[in-house]
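The protein record filed here:
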Amino acid sequence: MASVTEAAGLGVGEKKSVYKELRQNPYLLGLSAFASLGGFLFGYDQGVVSGVLTMESFAAAFPRIYLDSSFKGWFVSTLLLAAWFGSLVNGPVADRFGRKGSIMIAVVIFTIGSALQAGAVNISMAFAGRAIAGFSVGMLTMIVPMYMSEVSTAGIRGTLVVLQQLSITLGILVSYWLEFGTQYIGGTRCAPDIPYTGGKPSEPTFDPYKDIGPNGCTGQSDASWRVPFALQIFPGLVLGIGMLFFPESPRYYCMRDNEEDGIRALARVRRTSPDDELVQKEYLAIKAEVMFEASYNAEKFPGKNGASLYIAGYGTLFSTWPSFKRTAIGCITMFMQQFIGCNAIIYYAPTIFAQLGLSGKTTGLLATGVYGIETSISILRALEKYLCQSIC
């Protein structure tokens, strides 16, 4: 079935290879790479908790999280639970405040959540920080790929959106390497002069209730876990401030009936003049799609607008077989990506890799991060060549 733009004769030029397009327009690659800092924040906040959970100074501050496996599970998964809510609400937010505006709102929320995690003095504060940061990364994981897809061309859209996943794995890797250094602030033991009393007699482990002196941790500093939580604020602020200097999505301008700014934004990401024929033609294609969607919504959902229209629109994802097929492929793929337990590897890497024979916490942390980077890079070329051709 032909798309709206194809039916209207609004195709925009010959199909080029991914690498040729990126060479001709490195600005678009840079813009997408910068926006993918949103994925970096998600990966970092996922990965940072892995090393923190093994630090004795953190255990001394939050012994229940350290000893109670169920409570520990809730602590690490609060991020993802809140992210689910964040991804749901960001659709109307993106349409109301724009793609750039949504990213900056998410950054503000992320900064608050990160500050609470870094400065936590009780369990409630730590959980609140995880939840608030999770809500924001949920927003970012939805809006950043949307922004990338709306500013990119069809030929390289898939490749650029994969930058989001690459940034997530890069964030995980950076958090692991960073904790490799911070775990030595003050030493790796909370109280070096006090022997372990937890665990089995043959394999004693740290007991945060008993293996601490009257003055608390005299060895490993609280900075060993507070610094990693605090440092994630910096890339968040870089993303929020940097987005001020990048263009808004041309599609968003079109949705707001702001044609002049829309054409100007499109010309900027295409690195050409607003009067360029291809820019004009591409903007008309965007406008045709927006008008078609508006007409369809008015006919299908009369009297609905705002959030009610957004909710009603979910039903169209399952109303026809082609729509259901695309929705099912996307949802099942992402569901299985989580269902197979990849986050268990991320959160509990030190223990898992030690059981596989890798020596020590550090090796496990670094191996997990490097593996994620390798697998993300390997899919970049195959994505455009095989995946989109077979299902799109």
Q: What stands out?
A: The two ends are 11 Å apart (CA to CA). The chain has a mean pLDDT of 84. Residues 15-246+320-391 form a domain with the Growth Hormone; Chain: A; fold (CATH 1.20.1250.20).
